[in-house]
Amino acid sequence: MSTVIPAAAPIAVEAPVAPTSSATPVARAGRAIAHSPAALAGLAWLALVIMVSALAGAIAPSDPLAQHLTALLQSPSSAHWLGTDSLGRDVLSRLMHGGGTLLWGAGEASLIAVLIGVPAGLASGYWGGWIDTAISWLTDLTFAVPAFVILVALAVIYPGNTAVLMGVLGVLAAGAATRLVRNSTRTVRDELFVDAARVSGLPTRLIISRHILPTVIAPVIMLSATNMAIGVVVLSSLSFLGLGGSPETPSWGQMIYEASQNITGDPWLLVPPGAVLILTVVAFNLIASTVRDSLPGSPPPTRRPRRERAARRSSAPPTDSGTLLKVDGLVVGFPIGTTLRPVVDGVTLTVRRGETVGLVGESGSGKSVTALAILGLLPPSGAVLAGSAHFDGTELLGRTDRQLGRIRGRGVAYIAQEPMSALDPCFTIGHQLREALHHFGTGRRASAGRARELLVEVGINAPDRVLKNYPHQISGGMAQRVAIALALAGDPALLIADEPTTALDVTVQAAILDLFRDLVATGHRGLLLVTHDLGVVADICDRVAVMYAGQLVEQGVTADVLDAPRHPYTQALLGAVPSLESAGRLSVIPGAVPLPTAWPVGCRFAGRCRYAQDRCSAEPILLADADADADADADPARATRCIRAGELALERAR
Ligand code: SF4
Question: What was the pLDDT predicted at 317?
Fold first, then answer.
């Protein structure tokens, strides 16, 4: 009796979702400032200070150095709006001239910090490893150095040389910029849209400049504003100590120092320079805090060290010329406790041209890890411990990112479960498609037309509109179509799709499955479909491989496996699928997939298997052709990891 698994009817392409918010961090920061009265006030004040400083020579009422010995320490008047100092100099004029030096010096320090910190932070965060270690060590060094003491010492050695002082301050401040950019980079480095760019074969420099750099600009703006405030305070403090600049050059710090000498006789003198200094520092901090508040919360950074090159580099071609992917004895490990334990244990499977192979199992069975290992996209601590994975005769395992870059996108493409995460929120759909096409050799002019064609190929009815949309402006189903279009940009022969319909409603899911069916029906492509849904497997897969606790437990032609499962786990999975024939309650599989630390010596399903016997736990069970002895003509691809497979098949037949 056949197992009936309902398939949903296809529907029309879904409409785009209305725009909700700007996606780029810089745009978010700009909008946050525009909507913050405090930040706007800060900007206005800074604009005023910069303008007055730039025009001080023309608009100041008098020479800031001109001394009027007959008008010492005068109170504000029509002749001297802010009074005069102890040498009869006009306070307003000195105030107007004094800001330029401060802002210029603080700007120099802030710029140097950015010029050093951004590239260093990007390199440290993106590549990790020894580069990260070396840069982090240098960064720690800048934090350990007593910056102000060094600046005071330098001010004594280079009296009046503000450029040197602020240059050194910039170098010391670069440590904070490096750490900020590094952490931001590590946050986005493992995002799916960066993985998608990597899989599409985009060179590292373009991944960094187009996909990572835009995400760190807003934090850098925030830090630069803070550095400006720090620079103003430091330079003012040095001036206050008589070390910050030439005595002939008015500065706010110098004015505060002079005012402090007359604090008892004329306290007013402290007010103008003190007020403008405080307002300027507050303005920078208001802008910095507004930008900071606009930034999304950062998840804990994760580290992606260099992948272990444990796999063999055999270049043996597949035995079948139609075979696209041949995975043989793949073992993938992750650190659990202090040891590296296999979580994928000896997976062997093939995908041929014109064929869709389903890799199915519960969460934790190892199917997604298998797919990521094939693509060289294992999570940070994962490592391939053994086995091989040949694509069209070329070994994939143990290759560098650069080597895989020549295969990803053109040969093998990846379609992720979360299409929204796989698309860069900073760019329009059209830009991302054109970029991918251009990378694969399509001319700039031709790529615009081809991008539109790709959207039509994946069933998008309004390609011109979608090309102009940002990812947040389209629905989940349409985003998945766009992700598939991106995957097709390099005309890959093999598609690896990891739960591509899980996040979609059932009707959109059916439409996406139809699209996959059409893509494979061309005959030159193959599809490895990772899913937990046997309904999806029944719908489009030619063959299916069932995974449990890191091992394949059954594989074969889909119709054979679903109609007559030979492994109790497959049987139990089928029993848990809602069908038109299951009128009563759905059956459940008791217990859960055991953790790698609890894998038994014998059958890993024994703890949940109702057919288990003592002999099932005696020794490891091999994946074997259950019909080999009984039927010489049996499909050799049909295999089961159960020592009672023959008996259970008979039981089922009865
Ligand atoms: S080997 Fe034994 S425990 Fe394992 S699936 Fe077969 S019958 Fe069940």
Answer: 38
Q: Which residues of 407-446 are buried (b: 16+ CB within 10 A; e: fewer)?
A: bbbbbbbbbbbbbbbbbbbbbbbbbbbbbbbbbbebeeee
Report phi then psi at 382, rounded to 5. -75, 155
**Ligand 1: centre distance to CA 202 (Å):** 46
Residue 217's pLDDT band, with cuts at 50, 70 and 90, is: confident
Helix (H) or strand (E) holding 444: helix 444-457
For 25-57+84-294, which CATH superfamily applies? MetI-like (1.10.3720.10)
Per-residue pLDDT tens digits for 186-197: 877 777 677 777
415 neighbors 497 (Cβ within 8 angstroms): yes
Spatial CB neighbours of 297, under 8 Å, sequence gap ≥ 6:
none
The number of C-alpha atoms within 13 Å of 435 and in the hemisphere containing its C-beta is 21
Q: For the full predicted model, state whether its pTM sits above 0.70.
A: no
CA-CA distance, 530 to 511, in Å (whole number)?
A: 17
Atom of ligand 1 nearest to the CA of 648: 7
Closest ligand 1 atom, residue 553 Cα: 5
Residue nearest to atom 1 of ligand 1 (CA): 642
- Which pLDDT score, from 0 to 100, does residue 579 have? 62
Ligand 1 surroundings by CB, under 6 angstroms: 567-568, 603, 605-606, 609, 611-612, 616, 621, 642-644
- Percent composition of the chain: helix, strand, coil (DSSP 3-state, to 5): 50, 10, 40
**Cα 567 to ligand 1 centroid, rounded to whole Å:** 7
Q: Which string of DSSP letters, residue by residue, matches 311-345?
A: S----PPPSSTTEEEEEEEEEEEEEETTEEEEEEE
Beta bridge partners of 527: 356, 495
Please indicate whether residue 288 or residue 552 has the higher confidence score (pLDDT): 552
Dump the DSSP string for 251-318: -HHHHHHHHHHTTTT-GGGGHHHHHHHHHHHHHHHHHHHHHHHHSPPPPPP---PPPPB-S----PPP
**Tokens representing residue 558 in the block:** 């889909």
β-bridge pairing 526-531 and 543-548: unpaired
Please determine, for residue 3, whether its predicted confidence score (pLDDT) is greater than 60: no
- From CA 391, how far away is CA 316, in angstroms rounded? 11
Q: Using alpha carbons, select from 495, 300, 313 the residue that is nearest to residue 380.
A: 300
Nearest to 547 by CA among 530, 535, 560: 530
Residue whose pair of structure tokens reads 């759905």 in the numeric block: 586
Angle at 190 between CA 490 and CA 361, to 5 degrees: 80
Q: What is the pLDDT of residues 250-287, one digit of tens each?
A: 888 788 888 887 878 788 888 998 899 899 989 988 88
Q: Calculate how far, in angstroms, residue 611's C-alpha sits from the geometric centre of ligand 1.
A: 6
pLDDT digits (tens, 9 = 90+) for 17-31: 333 333 456 777 788
Query: Which of these, 593, 75, 142, 537, lies nearest to 363 by C-alpha position?
Result: 593
